Amino acid sequence: MRSIRRSVARLARRTGLLATALATAIASAVVLAPPASAATYQYDCRRLSGDGSYSRPLALGNVTGRTVIAVNCPPLRSGAGYTKRFFSFTLTRPARRPSYAGAAFTLDRNHRSAVNPYLLSGPYTVMHTSAGLWTYNRAGVANGRFLPLGPMPGGGTLPAGTYRLGVQKLTSPLGSLGTPWFNVMVVMA
Q1: Three-state DSSP class for 72?
Q2: How many other CB atoms are found less than 10 A from the CB of residue 82?
């Protein structure tokens, strides 16, 4: 009987250790696994709420810890009211490194004007389009322009808050009447 008690006691200790190890492993897996919000969300630009104006930007929603892509955004054209479009997004925590926001596009003979992003917080410009980084395809043709949100050009990262991402068609090249169709991307690490 004594040996059975010892065996049961040993088994209980081992089971306790096993249960503790299993609980620790599960807790570690939960901590080490990417958060549930770490995903890519893709929306049709033409179906977003808002009209793209400054006062009613197209709403991308909460982008903390996720990538949000608005695809099939109609071209920006020359003429008042057509050269700019606004998107809004919210960060519930500061941007982590690397994070960025901007537009991806494909230039061709008929659409030689790039989509140029800039970032606003209320009435203030947080980052001008001149801070945008160009991306290129294998042939060396520009295919995107993005603003670094973490780290930002002046250092630090974009703090939590609600922002407007403006995209615009600049007047150059003069012969271009519009941008190509484009995708807006907000990527948060």
Answers
A1: strand
A2: 13
